[in-house]
């Protein structure tokens, strides 16, 4: 099945920048918040697009061809406001939200800042909290060679290898590596040096029913944070996926669908 | 030609297999040290700087690195202040050159301006100020600056420091990275219009262009292997000078090289080889590449350029296991008899248009006596032969303190505009 994909550039923050939004699929609106290395259309996103119209806002600076948009914003607060403007400009009314890792934090920040903005929210191994007893790994300063073992319970599965693979073509590889590097740099800007910017003190404002999903073997952002999110968000519950690392949508895609389907209805 | 002594406060007694187990910065276990070897490393470092000042070097230069075993230098102003007073008391006409004050790292830029102004006053106007963006690990891991902000912070802070030195009236500063209701530092520098400023770069054309347009000097380090990188890096700089429309004045360019001098070439190799290997394997070689360029610290186009052509890195990727022969061949070090050393250095300076040489004469595990002898021998047998290299040049040295023979010039509208 072919899924139409449209890239939109929505002026935001008084025209200071465009927020690029990829739209794909058909059905009720779902906003997908990508992880730190930028938005990629992966099989999970394609699955969602079969049931929803997926809107994926690109964090400033991470959209292809517009790297310096990151310099148009100065704080996480400004990005949250710009995202709200864009979702409003798109005419989305109480969409579903799904956020992975860094994107989970962005979804939670929006839901805490604008209670009721989302009908339902799924957070996949979100960052945003900090506990000295189980710190979040600073992936921006981690050797690339160490990343597979931090991202996956089993980095040797075909799905994991496919995500980690680089393009064979040299120019495409340069483009892929430089974009990922820059995207990680852009998203790191407002979670540096520790990804705790006060979200814990804002979680109580979230009124959206929330499902927190975590890979049981997440070595990047430990599963213990699932309980912290559930304790903080009033109408929330959790699902823990066994034999799964930081990216359930890649490592345990079918189990993830089974976990979120009853919640999303 | 100005020839300065350059030094880092290295810990000299790391174990033989150090680089196989540890990084030389950020996470280096302090349990590897003893108080007495820390003291000795530091005492000798200070004594060597003073010795160089007394031996007739034109300047003494130090860098800044926090949480580092190869340069235990969280704030070079401390060393510069000590040297400023001591050399003033002794009447030594030597420039005090804290060349590494990282403004991409700094969270208190006005304090930097204040500290440097104090050094200029204490030295009677002999300060030269070096301002690098700062190493990525130092700015971002040691001092918590988001990598993508380090270069923008550097530019804003540099503009603030210069204005704090030069403006006669108090001013408010409403910056992106700092705000001050009133900037009016006491003391201001003695030098007018301000102390000479150098930027340090590894080959990034953005930094080169900035230094040329704003009329700063430029530092380049030979650690990566001058015979591998020199041609392209210096050509890039002088081509940019042509593009910007400024003269190819060699005094704009400052170059740092590790140097070992002994009576003969064989003796120099015998004395210095293992200490040079110590430096490259346990200092530079024990910094992972990603820590020198954390994501965001290098512009996306710079990352693309580096992925296409990493030749500016020279020998960096092999540093952890590098041998002395490789270091010599790549030009990472200049080691030999006085004749060998002066010929090689003179050749570099004339070929690449270098008007300021920074001689790193203590490096790695070099023990005190060897370092002291190296400084003395260089001062006696090499330095006098280099000093006259540019005597016939039509150019004046605009990037050196006036009290020490420099010819500082006033900023123009164009150079002021290029500051930020």
UniProtKB/TrEMBL annotation, chain A:
Gene3D superfamilies, alphabetized: alpha/beta hydrolase
Protein name per UniProt: Unannotated protein
An example Gene Ontology CC term for this record: membrane
Listed Pfam families: Abhydrolase_1
InterPro entries assigned: AB_hydrolase_1, AB_hydrolase_fold, AB_hydrolase_sf
Transmembrane segments: none
Domain AB hydrolase-1: 47-251
TrEMBL record, chain B:
The protein's name: Unannotated protein
Xref: PANTHER family: BLR5498 PROTEIN (PTHR30137:SF8), LUCIFERASE-LIKE MONOOXYGENASE (PTHR30137)
Claim: Oxidoreductase is one of the keywords in the record: yes
Coiled coil: none
Keywords per UniProt: Monooxygenase, Oxidoreductase
Entry keyword annotation includes Oxidoreductase: yes
One of the record's GO molecular function terms: monooxygenase activity
Signal peptide: none
GO cellular component, one term: cytosol
SUPFAM superfamilies documented for this protein: Bacterial luciferase-like
Residues covered by the Luciferase-like domain: 36-348
């Amino acid at each position: 099945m072919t899924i139409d994909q449209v890239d939109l550039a929505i002026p935001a923050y008084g025209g200071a920048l465009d927020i690029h939004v990829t739209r794909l699929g058909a059905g009720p609106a779902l906003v997908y918040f990508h992880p730190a290395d930028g938005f990629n259309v992966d099989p999970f996103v394609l699955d969602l697009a079969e049931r929803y119209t997926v809107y994926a806002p690109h964090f400033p600076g991470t959209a292809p061809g517009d790297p310096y948009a990151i310099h148009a914003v100065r704080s996480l607060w400004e990005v949250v406001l710009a995202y709200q403007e864009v979702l409003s400009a798109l005419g989305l009314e109480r969409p579903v939200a799904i956020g992975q890792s860094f994107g989970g934090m962005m979804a939670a920040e929006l839901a805490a800042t604008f209670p009721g903005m989302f009908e339902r929210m799924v957070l996949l191994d979100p960052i945003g909290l900090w506990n000295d007893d189980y710190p979040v790994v600073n992936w921006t300063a981690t050797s690339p060679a160490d990343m597979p073992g931090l991202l996956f319970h089993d980095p040797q599965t075909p799905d994991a290898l496919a995500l980690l693979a680089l393009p064979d073509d040299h120019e495409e590889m340069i483009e892929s590596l430089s974009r990922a590097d820059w995207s990680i740099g852009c998203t790191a800007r407002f979670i540096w040096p520790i990804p705790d910017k006060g979200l814990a003190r804002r979680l109580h404002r979230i009124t959206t029913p929330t499902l927190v999903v975590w890979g049981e073997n997440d070595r990047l952002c430990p599963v213990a944070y699932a309980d912290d999110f559930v304790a903080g968000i009033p109408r929330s519950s959790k699902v823990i996926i066994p034999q799964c690392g930081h990216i359930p949508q890649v490592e345990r895609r079918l189990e993830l669908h089974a976990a979120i389907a009853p919640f999303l209805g | 030609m100005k020839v300065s002594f350059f030094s880092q406060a290295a810990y000299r007694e790391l174990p033989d297999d150090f680089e196989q187990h540890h990084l030389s910065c950020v996470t280096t276990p302090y349990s590897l040290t003893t108080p007495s070897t820390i003291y000795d490393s530091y005492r000798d470092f200070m004594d060597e700087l003073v010795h160089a000042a007394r031996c007739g070097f034109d300047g003494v230069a130090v860098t800044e690195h926090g949480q580092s075993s190869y340069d235990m230098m969280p704030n070079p102003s401390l060393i510069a202040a000590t040297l400023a007073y001591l050399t003033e008391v002794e009447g030594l006409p030597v420039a005090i050159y804290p060349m590494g004050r990282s403004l991409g790292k700094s969270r208190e830029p006005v304090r930097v301006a204040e500290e440097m102004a104090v050094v200029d006053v204490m030295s009677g106007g002999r300060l030269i100020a070096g301002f690098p963006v700062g190493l990525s690990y130092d700015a971002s891991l040691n001092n918590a600056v988001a990598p993508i902000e380090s270069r923008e912070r550097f530019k804003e802070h540099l503009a603030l420091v210069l204005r704090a030195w030069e403006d006669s009236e108090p001013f408010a500063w409403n910056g992106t990275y700092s705000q001050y209701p009133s900037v009016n530092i006491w003391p201001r520098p003695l030098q007018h219009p301000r102390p000479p400023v150098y930027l340090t770069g590894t080959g990034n054309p953005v930094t080169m262009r900035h230094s040329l347009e704003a009329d700063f000097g430029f530092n380049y380090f030979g650690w990566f292997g001058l015979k591998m990188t020199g041609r392209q890096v210096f050509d890039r700089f002088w081509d940019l000078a042509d593009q910007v429309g400024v003269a190819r004045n060699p005094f704009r360019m400052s170059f740092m090289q590790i140097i070992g001098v002994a009576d003969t070439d064989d003796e120099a190799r015998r004395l210095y080889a293992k200490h040079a290997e110590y430096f490259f394997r346990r200092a530079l070689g024990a910094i992972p590449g990603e820590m020198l360029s954390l994501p965001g610290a290098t512009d996306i186009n710079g990352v693309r350029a580096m992925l296409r052509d990493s030749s500016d890195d020279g020998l960096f990727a092999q540093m952890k296991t590098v041998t002395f022969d490789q270091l010599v061949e790549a030009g990472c070090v200049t080691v030999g008899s006085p004749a060998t050393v002066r010929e090689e250095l003179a050749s570099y300076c004339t070929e690449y248009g270098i008007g300021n040489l920074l001689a790193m004469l203590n490096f790695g595990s070099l023990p005190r006596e060897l370092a002291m002898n190296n400084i003395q021998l260089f001062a006696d047998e090499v330095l006098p032969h280099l000093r006259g290299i540019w005597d016939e040049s039509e150019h004046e040295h605009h990037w050196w303190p006036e009290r020490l023979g420099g010819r500082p010039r006033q900023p123009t509208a164009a150079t002021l505009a290029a500051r930020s």
